[in-house]
Amino acid sequence: MRKSHTARMESLEDVLYAFSIAKPIPDAELLEEFIRRYPEYTEYLSDFAMEIVKDSMIAGDLASPDAEQARKFQFSPSVTRAMSRFQNALYISQQKEKAESVPPPNRTVIIENPFEKLTRQEIRDLSTRIHANTTLVGKLRDRQIAHTTFSPGFQQLLAKEMKAPLSLVAAHLAAPPQVRSGSQFYKSEHKPEVGNTQTFEEAVKSSGLTEEQQRFLLSL
Amino acid sequence: MDIVEQIRQSAANLHNALSEKGVDPLQPLLIANAALVHLDLLVNWLPLGDPALMGAQALFDQQSGTILCGSQGSSGERALLIAHEIGHACLHAGSSSCSEGEIDPSRTMETAPVGLQRVEDYGARERRELHANVFARELIFPRTLARRLYLGGNINASEIAQKMELPLILVRQQLFDALLLPPILPAAAEEPKETIVPRPDPSQDRAAAHRGSPFQLQAGPGTGKTRTLIKRVLSLLNDGIDPNSILVLTFSNRAAGELVERLSLSVPEAATRIWVGTFHAFGLDLVRRYHDRLDLPASPEIFDQSDAVEVLEEILPTLPFVHYKNLWDPALVLREMVSAISRAKDELADPICYKSLAQTMVTKAKDPESLMAAEKCLEVSKVYELYERALRDRRSVDFGDLIMRPTLLLESDPALQQAVQLRHRHVLVDEYQDVNRASGRLLKAIAGNGSRLWVVGDSRQSIYRFRGASSVNMTLFPSEYPGTNSDQLNINYRSTDQVVQTLKAVAPRMSASAGMLPLDLTAMRGLGPNRVEIRKFGQPEEETAGIAASIEELRQGGIPYCDQAVLCRSNSRMNEIAASLEARGIPILHFGSLFERHEVRGLLALLSLAAEPFGDGLIRVVADPRYGVPLQDAYLAAKHIRDNRGPVLRTLTNLAEIPGLSPDGARGLASLAADLEGLSTRDTAWSFLSMYLLERTDLIKKLAEDESVTGRMRAVAVWQFLNFLRSQSPTGKGAPIRHTLDKVRQLVLFAEERDLRQIPAAALHLDAVRIMTVHGSKGLEFEAVHVPGLTVAGFPLSNRAQRCPPPAGMVQDALGTTVADGARQAHDQEEECLFFVALSRARTHLRLYLAQLQADGRNRTPSPFLGWLPAHNCNEILRPPIMALPKALATETIAVSFQATWPITDRRLVSFEKCPRRFFYTHFLGLGNARKPTAFSQTHDCIHELIRWLATTRISGSPTVEMAQAQMDKIWEARGPVGHAFAQEYRQLATAMAISLISFGKDRIFTKAEPIPINFPNGQIIVEPNEQARMPNGRVVLRRVQTGRQHSDESGRLEYTLYHAAGQAKFGANYEVEAIHLADDKTGMVTVTQKKASARLEKSNAMLGRITAGIFPADSDPTTCPRCPHFFICGTIPKGSLTL
Predict the structure, then answer these.
(1) CA B379, B380, B383, B384: dihedral to nearest 10 degrees?
(2) Do the beta carbons of residue A93 and residue A107 sit within 8 Å?
(3) Which residue out of B237, B242, B294 would a mutagenesis test of the A interface target, given it has the greatest number of A Cβ atoms within 10 Å?
(4) CB burial of residue B25 (10 Å; 0-12, 13-18, 19+)
(5) Contact, B274 vs B248, CB < 8 A?
């Protein structure tokens, strides 16, 4: 249904940056325009816009007479704060990248989830090949296992069976947990719980795997 | 067949396929697992709280085809969990994740449209869960299986639940669905409706494609308004618009539900992300989102009208009533107040604003009349202020708040407004003509400059004046949103050319057309077989007989009953027509007042028997053929219960032992005791009745086996009633059944019960004529439409003055120059719109009816609307056929013998005058007086006791104010609402009345008031004056003391004629009759003209005759009945005679 209006692949950082400097406080017109231009970043843009407005609510920028002054400086204080948080996160991840040679979390969110394109049969086949079940594969896909608890052997097996570079698989596993696309939460009272993670060992033990599967996976 | 039924059938088909393969249908987990294999799905049971469950109880992962469930519950419950997720897998796009609250396959598929259910529900997500629940229930325990087991297997609900390890509540609900709702015949389900060949409709396409500025679409009837709205949504999605940013607002759950269904079919994935719902539901969502900003809990309690009245009742003595004082029946005044407050909220007028408007009125008042109007408004403003304080103390909201509070919050907080605007960037509004001030301002706050706002409406169908909707809002839209583009749809897909031409002729005459584009419609269906008909009759009964004939004539011409509808302007006329059609054997789809239906009353009587102090329901319950207890025995049993106070359900076991019972009576009472053994009043009304109906008696079987349409409707009414009971939360104070009974009375009293008259979707396919009000018909269409009552006061209805008119200036953009004038003009406009709505429901046959004579033979003026119809398009039929009644109904008589020791007093006769049936229950059977004590009623009882004390004490001396106060102290200690939060205020009230009573007795010498007999040809009446005294001039005065207010027609009351007759009989010309009213502190002599007196005396004689003949019909009245002690038992009386 959705058409892509852009052939360019601009990075998320660039798009969010452009968005944040377009107006002191984003409004619906601006958001619409950016979403039209970058439909692939719809969710990020909406969240970012809300974030700026929420921040300005706390600071009272929108209601304050200083709004005019803020405009002179091009950025409102809330945009500055939002941008600054963004930059900090970027910096930390870049430091980590240097140290661990693993892509940073907020970059990985832009990287495609390597599980996302698998068909039902492919995902089932994958779970068989790694001696697991679809539940454990789901936990890997949704990053519900703390990435520091994977054994290198398991990561290698996974990368091999997914026919994907180890760095990509590792980057995926290291990103924060996320709600899968395709869930349908939209009203205030229905929010999925994310962030609840397990160690690899806990995940292996609690996902309904056979004794034999568990033994194999924990031995890697 | 509606979508719920389709889902049920697909689940049932799956169940049948599996059981045909050999899976045991009575083993739910086997069925669920076999279904998984059949559908190539996997299941995995995980510990609760496992991250994979993401906080849900169960979820379906679309990508891997896996169902994950929290590991808990019996095998049956586990089967239901799986089945619920299979429901999502089979019915919906994408994955699903369901919380414990959402997975409840016992949930009824239709919510009772009262209370909170009116606001919630119908979001896409809620509907998905509802569908999955329905699917689960039907897959595990399909209706056919339920029916087979229950009717054929001699096994009851508990045994089924135990055997299949299913929750009892689910088994019961499914049995009710299977046994009470009419089965859908596959043939009827498949029957195709006349298909409309879609042809290009540029007006729809233009509207859907509009971009870049505010857009107002004027959509006349039948032009495909909803279709265009859907097209618009699809076109937005097609442009790549984020579905999360689309907000579709409607005014009714019905409209919202229809939109969600249609969107789910066209764009299943996106549909769940689009916010579709009513303004109130959206307001509730905002209240929940920003509850902390509103100083409310995350899910505040929502008060409906009866809850609001309850709040006011609690703070009653603090309310500064002067003009609106009604001590006898404060609830009625409070109801008016609540409506006035609700109207104020429609206009976003808070208590401060209300007060300042009222004060301005006081300042400007030039004459006593306008001063009184101003003071009344001031009084309402004070009540409003106290009510708001009470609401805030309870941290609750009412319906009006759901719009007003978020609107004011957004308007006061630009940042919040910005956030909401960012989230809801594309706003579509259906039925824009129903926008009132508050919803209009909420919309403005969300839509900003309106550049992406799209609204559709028809000012000519604006029929919700009572909640402030005004067609003016359609006219003002362009000025509210500069740069607006207006357009209209101009192909009518519904009606024949004759009907469309009629609409086009009527439209320009309507005041709601002002400022709108001229109605430009083309009938896609072209010319139909008939012109519009106007059928004229003599008296009103002929009109109803003529409607019956007309329906039958069309039916013989090939229009089945179910494609015909009678649309009435008023509820009372609707009930008369329904009764008339039923009497003539025409099947009708019409509940009338649900709680007053025979079969529902029977169940209410049972609840009353169980939960009310004296178990008055017994009289009606034992009249059922199942028990067949004769009247005399029922009388003895009721008396026994009264004499042996104690929990009624426990007393029942002794009833069969009462001396003097007939064998039939003893048998019936023993059988009743056995049926109710072990049932408890601590149960909810629903589970009490479920047990009684499904496990103790064969009443449900009997209902299920009656296949006539009338029989089916009885069953559906019971279903509807049970469905209502299920929606009652058991959180109220005291015994839940008692609470439910109180709620029923309130719903009827406040006319909120009308929402329950809506026929459940599962019964709509019955071949029966729909009978509804014009209001209820909005959005529907019928092959043939019959509109009765086209007389000058019938349609349009006459304007009635408002009890609590708003202060001047509150209703913005009001019509007229004064409040009253504005209200009248708005009324007239709404009547025109109702007429337009009624006409435009017709597809092919449109017939209007009127009686040209009144019941007394005088002429009736036809409706002015008839003059608007184009003569060339209408046939006037002067002597239309009528259908005679098969046989006249015999008057029901009850033979009662009573001795002279049982006198007919003036009080009893007055009671007979008000309602003969009430008289029978109260005075002959001795029922009633078991009302729930409130602080107010206790105060009232104290005052009455003081009146009695005073009447006696005054004979021997002259009690002073101090003595009266001391006596009141004593009475108060024993009977007053001591300890109540407002005891002090109540006490002040009682004291004030005591002082009045004493002061009204000054200069009188009181003597004993002896009963005075008056003889009539048909018997004797004993007049018992409240007080008798001698005045300084020597004349005797017979005094009637009332705690209430003096009515404008006080002297017209029968009581005073009887007092006068008694005075004359005993004192010749040397007497007076005095009326004392404590509530308004008034006293005065009452005279009755000779003419009036002789008419009243003649009437008294006639009433005596009816009492002797045993004629006690009920005199139904929508305000008196729900407050009558016999409300739950009225109607059926045991057979046989009564000897007192």
Answers:
(1) -140
(2) yes
(3) B242
(4) buried
(5) yes
Determine the pLDDT at residue B332. 74
CA distance B14 to B35: 7
φ, ψ (nearest 5 deg) of residue B678: 85, -10
Cβ-defined contact of B51 to A198 (cutoff 8 Å): yes
pLDDT of B952 strictly over 80: yes
Q: CA torsion sign, A46 to A49 to A55 to A58?
A: negative
Among candidate residues B276, B425, B273, B270, the one with its CA nearest the CA of residue A35: B425
Both tokens of B973, joined, read 């200690």
Higher pLDDT, B252 or B1130: B1130
Amino acid in the structure at residue B4 = V
**Residue B397: in which H helix or E strand, if any?**
strand B397-398
Rounded to the nearest angstrom, the minimum Cα separation between A98 and chain B is 31
For residue A110, the model assigns a pLDDT of 46
The neighbouring-strand residues paired with B1030 are B1005, B1036
The per-residue pLDDT for range A110-164, each reduced to its tens digit, is 456 788 888 999 999 999 999 999 999 999 998 889 989 999 999 999 999 999 8
pLDDT tens string B484-532 = 999 999 999 999 999 999 999 999 999 999 888 899 999 999 999 999 9
Give the pLDDT confidence of B749-781 residue by residue, as tens digits: 888 888 888 888 888 889 999 999 999 898 899
The whole-angstrom separation of Cα B291 and Cα B300 is 8
SS3 B231: helix
Whole-model pTM: value is 0.85
What integer pLDDT is reported at residue B915 of this predicted model? Answer: 95
pLDDT above 60: residue B191: no
Closest of B459, B515, B508, B436 to residue B833, by C-alpha:
B459
Distance between B55 CA and the closest CA of chain A, angstroms = 5
CA atoms within 13 A on the CB side of B312: 30
What is the CB neighbour count within 10 angstroms for residue B1064?
15
Q: Measured between CB atoms, which of A2, A28, A196 is closest to B421?
A: A28
Question: Cβ contact (<8 Å) for B242 and A28?
Answer: no
For residue B1042, what are the β-bridge partners? B1077
B219 CB-near residues (< 8 Å, 6+ apart): B225, B228, B456, B457, B458, B488, B489
Kindly report the three-state secondary structure assignment for every residue of B4-64.
Answer: HHHHHHHHHHHHHHHHHCCCCCCCHHHHHHHHHHHCCCEEEEECCCCHHHCCCCEEEECCC
In whole angstroms, give the CA distance from residue A37 to residue A4. 8
Least CB–CB distance from B422: residue in A28, A115, A141: A28
Residue A87's contacts (CB-CB under 8 Å, 6 or more residues apart) are none
- B1010 exposed, middle or buried (CB, 10 Å; 0-12, 13-18, 19+)? exposed
- Judge contact between A207 and B52, C-beta under 8 A: yes
Contact B796, B832 (CB under 8 A): yes
User: Could you say which residues from 976 to 1035 on chain B have a Cβ atom under 8 Å away from some Cβ of chain A?
Assistant: none
CA angle A78, A83, A88 (to 5 degrees): 130
pLDDT at position A181, please?
Answer: 43
Q: Which residues contact B422 (CB under 8 A, 6 or more apart)?
A: A26, A27, A28, A31, A46, A49, A50, A53
Q: B93 or B649, which is more confident?
A: B649
Q: What confidence tens digit (pLDDT) does each residue in B441-487 have?
A: 999 999 999 999 999 999 999 888 777 777 788 888 999 999 999 99
Angle among Cα B383, B389, B390 to the nearest 5 degrees reads 90
- What is the pLDDT, as a whole number, of residue A58? 62
Tens-digit pLDDT profile for residues B342-352: 999 999 999 99
CA distances from A162 to A115, A122, A126, A217 (A): 9, 10, 7, 16
Cis amide leading into B796 (omega within 30): yes
Cβ distance B54 to A1 less than 8 Å, yes or no, reads: no
